[in-house]
Amino acid sequence: MSAHHSGFACFVGRPNAGKSTLTNALVGEKVAITSSRPQTTRHAVRGVVHRPDAQLVLVDTPGLHRPRTLLGQRLNDVVMTTLSEVDIVGLCIPADEKIGPGDRWIATELAKASRTTKVAVITKTDAAPKKRIAEQLLDVVRLGQDVGIEWAHVVPVSAVADDQVGLLADLLVELLPEGPPYYPEGELTDEPEIVMVAELIREATLEGVRDELPHSIAVVVEEMAYREDRPEDRPLIDIAATVFVERPSQKAIVIGTKGARLREVGSAARAQIEALFGSAVYLDLRVKVAKDWQRDPRQLARLGF
Ligand SMILES: Nc1nc2c(ncn2[C@@H]2O[C@H](COP(=O)(O)OP(=O)(O)OP(=O)(O)O)[C@@H](O)[C@H]2O)c(=O)[nH]1
Ligand SMILES: [Mg+2]
């Protein structure tokens, strides 16, 4: 029998580059929330790809950006730490946007991780014409040359259209060193359930809010328990969660006229949580102001950063 291979690969890139969507597509299940707003991911999320002879642990990271708050700095720190710990790094660059100073800076940082295998992933190929994808391939190769990175592969993919996702998985698996499986068979993530629930609520809250508001939202699950005295075949989970925003004006937006928005957010989140647990859920959502929490070390600590 051939040896078992295993290891860690992380995706890095600008906010909104499609890292989390790609992670989910490779894992085959939603382990990380996604949104059209930049800086959706706020911690290193692990997803596991199982193969008969290999196990690939993917680490999705927050988008690297020029930080404007303490939270932003913390998010960048998470990425930098993760970068230094994995076997393979996949730099994600969207096909539908020109390479910019942000990508250049990230590539320069990546070049410093001299022992790590580097792969370039051109994401969102469904959103760009063929000619643009070809140009982007050349631009990415050139970017590598400019900063001193030799890409092991440059792979164009579309997570949304499921184009070349399987190929990318194969290429990453081939790059893994020999090693034992780290996760039990079938385990797709080690995200605690309570964190997944908070993230699904945050994802629902991000839908339809603009400008600075997405950054100001944090979600904490205060309570989560099976309700007692329920028939065995019809369990119900009670969940109480708080959506934190930074200012009273934001609270009003999240709640909406007569609570309409919050109700929509609640039912969208509830559907996702019910799918996760395969059980009915009663979701009690509140909105509270935690003034300027993104800049306040004590509040950041309380919110888990
Ligand atoms: N057309 C298209 N859109 C995509 C694709 N992958 C991601 N997107 C969209 O791009 C946006 C950002 O996707 P995310 O996966 O959340 O991006 P991210 O890089 O994880 O973003 P951060 O967590 O903020 O750093 C979302 O609106 C996705 O639906 C793709 O393959 N094709
Ligand atoms: Mg993300």
UniProtKB/TrEMBL annotation:
Signal among the record's keywords? no
KH type-2 domain segment(s) = 209-291
**Region described as G2: spans on this chain:** 39-43
User: Could you name the domain of life of the organism this protein comes from?
Assistant: Bacteria
**Where does the record say this protein resides?**
Cytoplasm; Cell membrane
The GO annotation for biological process reads:
ribosomal small subunit assembly
Q: Which UniProt keywords apply?
A: Cell membrane, Cytoplasm, GTP-binding, Membrane, Nucleotide-binding, Ribosome biogenesis, RNA-binding, rRNA-binding
Membrane topology value: Peripheral membrane protein
**Residues annotated as domain Era-type G:** 5-178
Q: Where is this region: G3?
A: 60-63
Name any GO cellular component annotation: cytosol
Locate the residues binding GTP: 13-20, 60-64, 123-126
| Stretches the record annotates as G5 | 157-159
* GO molecular function annotation: GTP binding; GTPase activity; ribosomal small subunit binding; small ribosomal subunit rRNA binding
Q: Where is this region: G4?
A: 123-126
Q: Where is this region: G1?
A: 13-20
Establish whether keyword GTP-binding is in the entry: yes
Q: Which InterPro entries match?
A: G_ERA_dom, GTP-bd, GTPase_Era-like, KH_dom-like_a/b, KH_dom_type_2, KH_sf_prok-type, P-loop_NTPase, Small_GTP-bd
Complex and partners: Monomer.
Family, as annotated: Belongs to the TRAFAC class TrmE-Era-EngA-EngB-Septin-like GTPase superfamily. Era GTPase family.
Q: What does this protein do?
A: An essential GTPase that binds both GDP and GTP, with rapid nucleotide exchange. Plays a role in 16S rRNA processing and 30S ribosomal subunit biogenesis and possibly also in cell cycle regulation and energy metabolism.
What name is this protein filed under? GTPase Era
What gene does this protein come from?
era
